[in-house]
Amino acid sequence: MLIGLMNCRKIFIMKKILLLSLLLSSCEPKKHKFEIKGKVYLSTLGVNKMYDATWFTDIINFDGDTLYYFNSDGSEVRINPPFTIKILR
User: What gap in Å lies between CA 56 and CA 62, rounded to an integer?
Assistant: First the structure.
C-alpha cells in the first residue's frame, strides 16, 4: 500500500512538472519584423521638442517619404523622415 502511494505521488509530481514546462515553453514574446527608429515632436515638453522614438511592426507602407502602418486597433501611425528601418526577422 505504501509503495502504491509513493508511485501515485511521483506520477502527480511528474504531471505538475510536465504541465509547468508546457506553460513556460509555449509563452513566447511577440517577434516583430521591423524596428523603426526616428524622432517625435512633442510640443508640450520644454525647449528640445524632438525626442528619440522606436516603433515595432510587421507591415510598413510608404506615402512619398513618410512611413506609415496601422496598429491592431486600426489607428494609423505616420513616421516622418529621418528614420532608420532595421529588419528583425
Answer: 16
Enter the pTM of the model: 0.61
Return the amino acid letter for 76: E
**pLDDT per position as a tens digit, 6-21:** 566 777 777 777 666 6
Would you list the domain boundaries of the chain? Answer: 34-87
Locate 55 and state its grid cell: 516603433
Q: Environment class of residue 73 by beta-carbon count within 10 Å: exposed (0-12), middle (13-18) or buried (19+)?
A: exposed
User: Residue 41: is its pLDDT beyond 90?
Assistant: no
Identity at 33, one-letter amino acid code: K
Residue found under cell 494609423: 76
- Could you give the CA distance from residue 59 to residue 56 in angstroms, rounded to a whole number? 9
